[in-house]
Amino acid sequence: MSHSFPLRVFLILAACCGVSRAESRERAATVASSLPNIVVIFVDDLGYADIGPFGGSSATPNLDRMAKEGRVFTDFIVPSAVCSASRAGLLTGCIPERVSIRGALGPDAVHGIAASEVTLAEICKSREYATACFGKWHLGHQPRFLPVRHGFDEYFGLPYSNDMWPQHPTLAGLSETERRKRYPPLPLLQQDQVVDANVTAEKQSELTKLYSEASVDFIRRHRDQPFFLYLAHTMVHVPIFASPNFEGKSSLGLYADVVMEVDASVGMILDALEEVGVDERTLVIFTSDNGPWLSYGDHAGSAGPLREGKGTAWEGGVRVPTVMRMPGFIPADTRCAELASTIDLLPTVAKLIGAKLPDHPIDGKDITALLNDADAQSPHESYPYYFADGQLQAIRDRRWKLVFPHQYRTLQGSEAGKDGRPVPYRQVQAELSLYDLENDVGETTNVYEQHPEIASRLQQAAEDWRSKLGDSLSKCTGSEVRPHDRLMDTDARLTW
User: Fold this and answer.
1) Rounded to an integer, what is the distance from CA 198 to the centroid of its chain?
2) Sign of torsion over alpha carbons 333, 50, 410, 406
3) Which of 83, 94, 133, 336 is catalytic?
4) Is residue 17 among the annotated active site residues?
5) Cα end-to-end distance, the chain, whole Å
6) Separation CA 223–CA 130 (nearest Å)
7) Cα separation of 302 and 322, whole Å?
């Protein structure tokens, strides 16, 4: 499947050989049908232990089905435990530091993903794929940064996080005027135009349903053409909302209702793929952008056995529940415990569809073997954990994780928030420490003194990453960092 030719190549060859245009299109369609479709379902702030295949208590029959028919990845991580940086990693195949996207871009951000970056959508477009992004973007909200300028044919969704609106819970008690000084109304976009300038709570409750329906429609319209669908759910990021069909239905509270609706969305996608007859040649990937936002308590998920959550370099922040399915290619009811990451999706998809990788350096690795080989090992010799304004806070290999001294946020046993209102974190200091993730996934026991040779090896790997991507903790600048783009005074701007 990696050697199939694009449609235009077949048309040219057919013309040279005297084959009719209709015959050449028929042959090209046959070849195109051998290319795998790609579906990435990217949930926001879903905890490691929130779904059935990872021990979650919420009803997730469709994800349970995906796991039974595919492979569960238990050591799958994101390159940053926060929204924009994580999405930059997934779509560019790079550690976010390399592409200069950090943190979570707000409504006042004047920068975004650079035009020179090659996204996963553009990789697919090079092989004549139809491409769509439905849901949260968060890589810049002005026209030059939006999905339709970065390889996606279609876009519908929110440009950034759904809590970046005047009803943010931390603004309770302020007047509407004061609220709007902090955040403007939340816009809903289609292509590069605002279609709803003031998204309400009622509209937010419809988002999972609207994104899912748009995805099903896209699949149906492109049944005869290879496609890449990026479904980036707004949920389960706070404020959480479920549609009337799901609110109150889990009997476990609103958060479980929202997870149940996300699971139903997965079912809609799987059913649509089967309906149009492309089920067995579609790779479906379900994962999350980072771990749970623990300060929101009952409106947040669970990291299960992992330490801490979103916004930290501990495993609860970066290790995410991941399931992949492609009947006939990925063995059913299997598990993979090897280190892999969202940055690996771009080179892996490129390999599967026979596309050329970007000319500039990327950090992701081809993990095709991990999809269907029980004996395959992770291609990552080391993996850096960057966070908080360019700090290299930890580094790991397939088994060991070295944590550098840094400040991190924690609740440390204090009572979490309730009913959508967070509690403040405390800042504490992490010490230089080494953890055996194979036997201590909760990062409870520092074994630095017992394994100095492993610590030394990881220290050297960290120096290599610092030389390339920098480290604000060490006050060094990387030689391979590429700039993001910034708005110019002459750029068109969205207003709402």
Assistant:
1) 26
2) positive
3) 83
4) no
5) 45
6) 10
7) 15
The shares of helix, strand and coil residues in the chain, as percent rounded to the nearest 5, are: 30, 20, 50
Q: What's the CA gap between 117 and 128, in Å, rounded?
A: 19
Phi-psi region of 130 (alpha: psi -120 to 50; beta: other; left: phi over 0): beta
Q: How far is CA 427 from CA 88, 294, 408, 430, 464, in A?
A: 26, 14, 6, 10, 29
Instruction: Please state at what angle helix 21-32 crosses helix 7-16, rounded to 10 degrees.
Output: 140
- Exposed e or buried b per residue across 102-123, where buried means at least 16 C-beta atoms within 10 angstroms of its C-beta: bbbbebebebbbbeebbbbbbb
Q: Among 94, 124, 138, 380, which one carries the catalytic annotation?
A: 138
Please indicate, yes or no, whether the overall pTM of this predicted structure exceeds 0.90. yes
Per-residue model confidence as pLDDT tens for the chain (496 residues) = 333 333 443 333 344 344 455 554 454 454 456 899 999 999 999 999 999 999 999 999 999 999 999 999 999 999 999 999 999 999 999 999 999 999 999 999 999 999 999 999 999 999 999 999 999 999 999 999 999 999 999 999 999 999 999 999 889 889 999 999 999 999 999 999 999 999 999 999 999 999 999 999 999 999 999 999 999 999 999 999 999 999 999 999 999 999 999 999 999 999 999 999 999 999 999 999 999 999 999 999 999 999 999 999 999 999 999 999 999 999 999 999 999 999 999 999 999 999 999 999 999 999 999 999 999 999 999 999 999 899 999 999 999 999 999 999 999 988 999 999 999 999 999 999 999 999 999 999 999 999 999 999 999 999 999 999 999 999 999 999 999 999 998 998 998 8
**Catalytic-residue membership of 150:** no
